[in-house]
Every structure is written in C-alpha cells, then in structure tokens.
Amino acid sequence: ILAQAVSGSFRWVAHPTQIPALLVFPCAFALDHMGRRSVGCLIALVSLASLTGCLADSYFNNPRGSNNKLSEQSNNVQNDNRLFDSQNNAASGYQIGDNCKPVCQNGNQQYAEEQPGAMQGIMTYYQGSELYIEWYHQHGCGVGHPNVRCQIILQYMSEADNPGIRDGTKRGNQNTAGGQQEPPTAEDAAAAELGQHEPLDFYLDCKKRERNKGFYTSDQQMNNARSATATRQNNNGNNNANDRHGLECPEERDYYPYWHPSPWHDIAVLTDEPQTRCGYYQEESQNVKAKGYCSEATINNPKACTDAGKEWKERAAHDEPPPECIGGIASRDNHNGNVRNGSPVYYVWKIPDFIKGRAVLRLRYNITTGDMNPTGLLNQDPAEAGASPAAAKRDIGDPFFIDAKFNDKDPNTRRRTIFQGGPPIIANDPAADWIKLGAAQAKNRVLQLQINTNQLPRTFEDRTHTFMVEPRPSTVGGSARIVNYNVRGRRGNIVQTYPSVEYDFVPPELSVEQGTYLHFQWAGSDANQNGNAGNGRDGTDRSNIVQVAARGENVPLTLDRHTLFTDGSDTSDAEGRALVDKFAWLDQDANVECNPDETNNNAVENCKQLNGASAYFNGGLVEMKQIGTHHIVSTRNNDFSNRSQKATITVTMKSWEWYSILAATVGGALVLASAGYLGAAIYAYRRPNSELFSKRYRPRVLNWVVPKTALKAKIDERNQWKTDQREKKVGLRDEAAQHIVGKTHEDANLGANGNFAEKTAPPKTSWTGCMAGCRSVGLGEQRVVDIVYTVLNLFVFMIGFLSHLGMGFHGSLAYPLAKGAGYTLDLNLAMVVLPTLKSLQTALRGAASTREWIPIDDPIAFHIRVATFILVGTVVHVGAHMWHMTLIKTAPTIQHDPLGLWDLSEQELVSGATILEQFLDWRSRCAALTGIVVTVLIFAMAITAMPCSRRGTNRLTRCLGGYNLFWRVHAYWKWVFVLLLLHAPGRLWIWLFFPAMLVVLDRILLANRQRPYLVLLSAKTLPKDVMMLTFEMPQGWSYEAGQYVLIGWQGEWHPFTLTSAPEEKYLSVHIRAPSSLDWCSALRRRLLVDAPADAEEPKPMPGMVALSSTQVAPAEGEKSPKPERKQRPEVHYTAFVCPRSHVVYCRPLRTGLSDAEAAAQAVNKKLKPAVAAPGTPKSATGGPPDLERGPSVRSFETVVPSQVDKVLPKDAVVLQISGPFGAPAQKVWNFETIMCVGAGIGVTPFASILKSAQSKVRQRKAIEGLMGTPSPTNIAKKKGKESRHSEKLNSSLGTRESLDQLLREVVTVPRQIYFYWIVRSQDELDWFYDLLAVAVEGPARDNVHISVFLTGEIELKQVRDLKCTQSQYFGRPNWGRIFSQVKKEHGGEHIGVFLCGSPIIGKELSYQSTKHTDPLTTEGGTRFSFFKEHF
After folding, report:
1. What is the Cα–Cα distance from 117 to 979, expressed in whole angstroms?
2. What is the DSSP letter of 1086?
3. What is the pLDDT of residues 611-670, one digit of tens each?
4. What φ, ψ does residue 1330 adopt, rounded to 5°?
5. Helical H runs in 891-926?
6. End-to-end CA distance of the chain
7. Coil/strand/helix, residue 191
8. Stated pTM of the model
9. Residue 1109 three-state SS
10. How far is CA 214 from CA 175, 211, 227, 379, 824, in A?
11. How many Å apart are CA 1390 and CA 762, to the nearest integer?
12. DSSP 1211
C-alpha cells in the first residue's frame, strides 16, 4: 500500500535478464530521478476467507458510487470495464442521476434516454462546503482489526486535470471509455457519449512504459511483453479492449503512492498502521512531491533514461496540502461494511476553494492477511520441516518489503502438485499435508488452501458519478459554514439493493450551529429495475422532507408547529413557509397538473406519491435559524414494513470564536469592576466611618465628582469618629486595669482560704501510651509527625491510584500513578501555604500548647517538609503523565467522527495525538500546558530557596540576585494556585477552599496591621559585620520577647528578631550584614557610609563652586575626584515628615548640628520634623506632630512612592516596620526551666528574652511592694507602721506560698534560665557582650546561668574574662553531659529547649531532648521539649 524511499544500491534496468532479485511484497523498488530507490507497494490486500469469488467489497453510498453503472435498467452493471476496474460485485453501485420533468420514462415505463434531462441529475457542491463521503468495505478494516491489514485511499480528479472528464451517455456494454479498440484512438476517446475519467495520454503513456518488474508476482504468469498495464492482479495486461478498464492504468491503480505522474489528487489515507506508514504516505503524495517520467515513454526510471540519451523530466506537484493520514475505524467483516452502532464509515471532506467545475471521487480499498508477517506460519518453509522453528523461518523482513527472490522462477507450473515450499512463499491453491497427519498415520492427509495468488493481496475500487463544484454565492460570507445534506440509496428492498443500500438521509444525525447553511440536494434515477420494491412510480427514486414531532412518529406536523424552516407561530414569515411547501411538494406543480384523486401509483399526476417531481432536487442553501431539535421524514420512502427514511437535525446556539470570548470576558470584567468600584465609592461616601472611606481605600473617583467642601466635611466627620473611638478605647483600658487589680485581690483571698485549685497531672490517655511506645524505639514527637504525615501522603496516593486504576490509556499504569501523585499534590499544596501565614502563626502561638511536634512551632521546617513532598509528587505526577502522553502519541490515530455516530471512547479520541496537540488540547483546558508552567514555577521556587541560592554564597547566585531572586520567584505563588485551579478545577478547589479562607483571613489581618514608618535613632557598627539599629517605639505598638518583625527598605522586607525587651521604650535589632548578603550589606552601607557622607557634602549656591583651602581645582577636562567614603562607627539620625505624603524619612545628624538647627533647616526646606525639637509643641495625644500614625502601606510594597522619592533629600532613609510576628522563642514563658542555645547572630532573640525576664521580675517585686507582701527584701527594709500594715495585710491574704503562686500566674517568668552561646572567636563575642551584660544585670541575675563556647582557633592572650558568664569553654558543647546535668538538677520538670542557629546543632538538640525525656507514663518524669527558629 505504500511506496517508500530507502537507501541502497538497487539498480533497475529495462532488459529482463538484468533484473535483480529484489522484489517486495506488497512493495517493489524502483529507481527514482534522484538515483534513490523508491518502493511501490501493492495496495491490493485481502483476507484469505474472501479470496474465493466474493467480489462485493468497496463502494460509495454518498456521493452516489457508480461501480461502472450508467443508466442500465437493471440491478447489475452491464459493462464493468466502462471506466475502471472495481473488482466489486456487479449488483453494487447506483445509476447516474436524472433530471427529467417529471420522469425519464416512456409510456411503457421503460427508461427513455432521449428525454430532456436524462442522465443530467448532476450534483452541485459549493467550494468550502462540507461533503459527507460515505462508503462500505465488506471485508473489514481499521486500527486493531484482528483479521486483516488494510488501507483506504480517497482521491479526486477535476476538469483541471482532464478537461474531458464526463460520465457519458451511451448505454449497453459497448461504452468503455476510449472506445472498443486497443490501444484507444484519440477520435474514440473524444466521443462525448463515452465516459472518461483519466485522460487518453495518461493511458497511452502507461501502455508504452515498461512495467515495474520489481513487484512480487508470486507464481502468476506475467505477460512480459506487456507494459505497465500488466500487474499481478491484472497479469494478462490489456491485450484487447475487453481487458482494458476505461483509460485506467493498472499499475497506477494497484500501487500507491505511484512513482510516475498521476491525475489523481489525494484527499485522505486511512490505515491500520498510521504511526509507521503515514509519514511516508504524506511525503510521497503527488500533492507535495513532483513525479518523474522519461521523454522516451517506454523507459520507466531516470538511470535508464539518461543512459539511453533521453531526458528525465518532472511533472510538478499538485501544490496542495498532503493528504490527511489517520487510523481507520475498525469495521466488522461481511457485515455490510458497518462499524459501531450499525453506522457506516464516512469521511468529512471540506471541498477546497481551488477546485472548480466537474470533478469525480475515487475510493481504493486494499487488504491482506497477517500470513506475510515474519511470525506467520506461511513463512515457514515446509522443506525444512525437520529444522527448528527459528531455522525454518524465511528472513523476509518487513512484510511490506518482500523482494523478488520469493517469486516463482517457473510460474504457474505447479498448480496441481504438492506444495513443497517456495519460492513463491505460497502457490496458487496450494495443497500439502499442512497438519502433518499423514506421516504419523501413513495416510493421505493432503488439504488444499483456497488461495488465489492473483488476489492475494487485493485492491478494490469505486468511483462516484461526476459532480460540479461552484464558488459559493456572493450572499454567503467566506467564513460561513456550508454543510451538504443529501439522500443515499436506491429503489428496492434490502435483498434487491444489496450490496447497495435503501433510502436514507446523509447524514442521518446532524448537529450544526445557528447560522449554518445546509445545502439540501439529492439525485435519484428513473432507471431502477422495474419490479423492485418501493412506493410511487415503478423504477423511480423520489424523496421529500417533512417535519415530525419525534423519530418514532410518522404523521407530519402542521404548518403552525414547524420549527426547521420557519417558526410556525410566525404567520408573517412567507419565506420560511414557502420553504416548507417546497421541500414537502418538490415543485410538482411546475411539471404536471396534479390530480389529488389519482390513485394509480404509476401515474405522473399522482403527486401524493411525488410522481410529478424530478429525480433530482436542489433545495439550495437554507440558513438554520431555529434553535432546537428537528425530526424529518420522507413521506414516500417511509414504508414502516420495509424502510424508514428519517433523520434528525439539531441546531444549537452559535458558539463564539476564542477572540470573541476573550473580548467579551475582558469587557464584562471591566464593566463589573467599574460597577463595583462605583458602588464602593457610593457606599464609602454615605458611610464615612467605614474602612472604604479610609485614606488607604478611599476611591479616587470621589475626588473628581464630589465637591471639595462636601468631601472635606466627610473627612472631618471620619476624623472626629476616630478621635471618639480612641478615647473610648482609653476608657476601656482603664476599666480593664481596675478590674484586674480587683480580681487579683479576690484571687489572693481565695488563696488565703486554701481554695486554689491544685495542679493535677494530665490523665493517662491512649495518646500518651502511644508516644511512650514510640519513644521506647527512639522516635520522638517530631519524628512521629514526619512519619504520620508521610503515611497520610501514602494513604492519599493510594486513594488516587486505586480510584483511577484501569482508567489509563489502554489500561496503562501511568495514568493512576499520575493521579495518585496528583492527589498528594492536592494535599500538600493545600498545606504548604499555611506555615507562611504570619498573622495566623502569631494568633495560634498564643493559644497553642508547648508540644514541639505541633508544626506551627517550626513553620519554616514544616513548610520545607511539605515542599519536599510537593517536589516528589511533581516529579512522579509529571513523569507519569509524560509516560502516558508518550503512549498516546505512539498509538495509532483514529479516524474522526464529527457526527458522533461511532461513540468513540476518550482513548480513541486522543489516540495518536502528538505531544504538542495534547499540550494544547482545549478539552482538557490545556491541562498539560498549565501543568508544565506550574512545574517550572515550583522548581524555580525550590532552586531559589536552596541556601546557596537564597543566601547568595556563590558568585552565580549573587549575580542573579540572591535573596532578591528568591523573594521575587516566591512572589509567583499566587499565580501557581490560579494555574492549578485551571489545571484541575474539578477537585483541587475542594482542597484549597479552607486554606484559601485562611489566606484571606491572614491577608485581612495583615491589611489591618499597622506598618508605620520607623524613626531611626541610631545605627552602630559592631564587630563581625554586625550592625545595631535603634528605633523609637511606634505609637500603639506592642510585642512579646522572642518575636520578630519585618523591616522594609527599598521595596524589600526582611525578618529580624527584636533584641529589645517589650518593657523598654525603644526597639532594637541586630543585623549581621557581611558583603555576601546584598540587602543587608546595602542597608549597612546606606546607614553607616553613604547617608552620613551625603549629609556632610557641601551644598554650594547655584552658579558657585566652594573649595576648601586644602582642595585644588581640577584641570580643565578632568573630573573632580570623589572623596573616599568610610564607614562610621555610629551615626545618629533624626526624622522628618513630607507634609503632603506623610512619608517619614530619617536623616543623619551632621557633626556639630543641634536638633533645633536640624529642625530649623527642615523648616527652611518646607519639611516638618518628626522628632520634637526643643520648643516644638506636642500633639494632643502627647506624641510628635504628624507621627501619631503613619499611613498604612500594603504588604511588601515600595515604602516610598515614586513621586515622593524625587523630592526627598539625598541623605534621606525611609524605613518601615511590619509585625510583630510569633516565633518559637516566645514560648519561653510557658516553662519554669528553659535552655536557650544561640549560635553567632542567633543570640538575638534571647537578648530580648533575658532583658524581658529582668523586667518581669522587677514587675513582680513591684507588685509585692505595692501589696505589702513580706518578701525578704521589704521585710528587711520596712519597719514600724509599714511593717505592721504588711503583717495585717499578709494575714488577711493568706500564706506567702499562695501569693507567690498567684504572682507566678499573673507575671510569668522562668525560674531558671540556662543560656548557651556558641561563637567562633572572641571578636564575635565582643559585639554582644555589652548587651548581654545589661541583659543579665538585675533582680533575676541569680536565675540566669550563661555558658559561652568558643569553637574557633583563639590565642589565649586574646581571651577575656566575661564577668556576666558563669562558664566559658573552648570547643563544642558536650550536649549529652549538659542535658544529663540539667535533668539531674530539675528532675520531674517540663524543660523547654530553644535554638536560634545552625540546623546541625538543632539535630543534636532534638536527639538529646528525645533521649533524656522520660516516657509520658512515668510518674514525675522529666520532659524536654525542643523548639528551633527559622527565617
């Protein structure tokens, strides 16, 4: 069936003795004009069961296939050589259409060819219209067919290829195209009464040209004197006119693609092996490839042509798209050619715009069996029966390339002898003891196989009658869809018409959009055999269209109920009502005088039976306007006992193009957004107390449409409301304080009476027992959480895997694997965002227990753990899907079913789709494409989140941006979730619904959280690239020790732990800023280098240059050298406010410049100072003017608007703060004993904790002094009346132990703090020593034990004695000894272990915590809970 160019050294010459033994079955080699071997493959392929005489095989139903019939008044064809060699049953085919008015018959009801319109019922189609080509092939075909291998080729020819193309009018058996002489003459070929498809020159060239002797001919006796008219299937050649089939070239008919020029254009190729054959079919099609011929017609290859001194020429390609090549739908053998659901095979051909005039269609059907496969028993040589099966096999290679060595060297001489093996591979009707029964039983067990090598393989063919192609009417736009709606079948019952069919509409089930044009048209014949069953006049075909209510009904609808051509209820639609009449009555009044009383079914006046209508009907283009389902029927051919000519036409609402949908979507979104915006503006104006009227959210449209006075009045109203709310809150705080003091006294009285509830040990539960068992095998809480979460992922994976098992392409495991991984992605993508919700973390930390296995206690670690599961799930999900897509790609492409008649499965619809087509499949919402985008983003986040990338520890990551790159890439997380919802909307939204609610809640909390501008007081340089920043406490700000904040500068926000205590009146942070950290080092340079230098640069007057006495003016043409900028040890700052934007910025204090001078300088520049200078009035609330509350800015936005940044001084620095946010370190107040471990800069949270602990102890002692509690201190200091008053109060409140317990619950502070600081060098320790000394000084000093570990190389003379520390070590801590000692001193307690430092240390601390923790069931057991901090 194919012709394939392959490399090799094959040489083909004309002389028979020089023909090499290279022959293919069903292919043959031939040298093309480039000197390469081309392979022409025999397209006749047939099953063994069908080789014994059954000829009915392949024929068109729509358009009407001729099978060489013209207008013979018989069921059988009279001249099966008239135009082509069909190899079909003589009973198949349809007579040519008639267009007589009313009938092409005489008074005896015999066909009258002399009647006007006889044989003139020519179908007319419009360019660009859709033609439903329908056919049958009896022996089956299609992808996966178990019995045969097959191909179907659809082709056309038009008058551009042969101006003389015609059907002819001469009847009988002497009407062969080209006449009755061989070879045909030009005069006979030009006879108009004779039909013609191929031009005469095409046949004459074929007749002269030497046949391709490289084909497999088996044992057929080929007529070597004959030319290309002789093939294995036509082995005698066209010896005379009786052997010739029109002007068809047998070699061109039997082989495809043909290697010489052909007038046929390829439309489509349907094959059972599209994945291996389609590429070559399309490449070798004459649509795209020129074909060669020799100037000497007898020579058939370029080498022989040039050797003979002739010219090898080329005929240009047709310059058309290559044929569509797909896998055919499988049909059942000998089942009338039907496929699934009893529906026929069809192909929708959109008629190209370049076809014009008369044209004809051609169908070639080629089949063979699997006997020629390398594994077939036919390939085992019977002569080698004693050999092993492997040795007995012939090496024939690809069955499409069987060469000449398998031909019979003495053909047709062994027909009656016992077949002893080839060559040939198989003989004609071979007889042998195939089963080997005779040798064992000494009996004759010879069986003959019914194989005709003339027909193995085999080609069948059918062609339509000619039809016309015209340009579409000018009234119909070029983009309008036109669908041809026709009638198939001929008169007779199923036996009389077989293998043709009875009447039916084509297509029987049609769905089109509103505005589509249907071209209603059909042709019938008046030459049907008289006596065939049917209705109306004998021997005639007639059809009409009326509408019925349902397919099961036969009574037509009344006009007022019609919906197809008109809205029956609209009486003014004259055009539509005329169409109803036209299609029902067929314009019979124009042909005859109808007699409604006529009852003779053969009378032409009997219009009830449509006898007055012509056999050809052209209803023209009808625009489908009425949406709905319309059922139609033909009143004549709807004899329920015999046939049912019914159909359904469904008209749907017109769908929009993608650009229209996009424009409508964008337009609708803009309209909704505008409406919402205006609604919000109206709401905000009417309710100035709402958040929408705040300065941050106030719609700008109010500034344009509302008068300034009215808007100012609303703003004043809101300001007054805010003032009232502030005063109300102050009053509520005072009441709450009084209530707390009163409550404290009540609790103290309860303690005096011994009514305090005693703390009881937690009850023993199944959970405690479970954890005890886990600890006994070395599994701590954190490890248990990891295991549980892993098991949860496996459980979810199995749910997805098992629920989709067997649903993959052909049952592949790739699909359930992908779905299982997808389910885990659903889970993890829903969880991964939760640890990043800062407001939610902060809220939960205040209520969460102290158990370290709660993921919220280490959100970054949990986030990383979930992200790891996402990476693994993504790899499995994407990999499995790519595996699945590859399986689909390598599968055969199945023929399209636009009518939906075959119920193709989802697998068949996508079978053979390329990877690109699967990526862009709109039916799956382009899920593959969105999946790849999401995968790229996920891996980009993972790569940029690696420490080497995020910290910029190598040159490449620093060049790419380091932390900036990490932050920018992670900012795409929102788009990831948007794409995920497009990727899998059916299920993912369920998983993401509640996380999305938490995200929205977190964003609301963050939006309401103040992000005030910071007033920087000082920036100080410390050893080891550490910088300390001190800020004024923002008004209304509160936090807890151990929490962290986000500091924003130049559009970036970074987290830092507060080193100040909540009880202090300022904020401080310590930032490690080495040169490798871009943002931190840039901030250090700005605050300690650039800003002070900019502040001290002289500001010369315009037009003047100021030079000091030591400066020298540069020479002309030279640039002034910039002074070297050095880092300052400490720089103090003062703050200013831009009056219009309320942006707070800080400027360095110049040396020798007082605050008043700085304020005066700021006033001269029309900028107001943020810090109150001497004499500056305070605001009503006591704070500096215009700084009570800076405008809130959305999270992670640029802190300085672009228009403000242009007017700021060169030395200005704008900083913002967001937070505070919860951290594990803030849980220290839940423990009586804590172990704090800081490594390097990780000491920062514990500085705040130590200072806060000192302050809390001071608060506790202050309360004791206020209440007169006889503590050791006030007992020693207070005598007399105060002492007597204390004793009286003490006796009324109860015992000292009760009061101590009350104070511990009100003012929580650990009883014992163990602080371990690990540093590399003495210099690294020095920068924090002063802060540490301050932190430990105070009433809680005896409760703080500090141990310092110096792990680097240090000279002993550099070691300083640290007075604030109890222990100082060289080397790494021995954590096993430390934990054992703490456990010994604090047995029975729950001890908190906190780390801010390297994860390596964290692993050891986690291990020691688990190791030294007693089982939960142990009475009085000691427990260590470990918490680590990440940023």
Report:
1. 64
2. I
3. 999 999 999 999 999 999 999 999 998 886 667 899 999 999 987 776 777 788 888 888
4. -60, -45
5. 906-910, 915-919
6. 69
7. coil
8. 0.66
9. coil
10. 34, 9, 13, 20, 61
11. 13
12. T
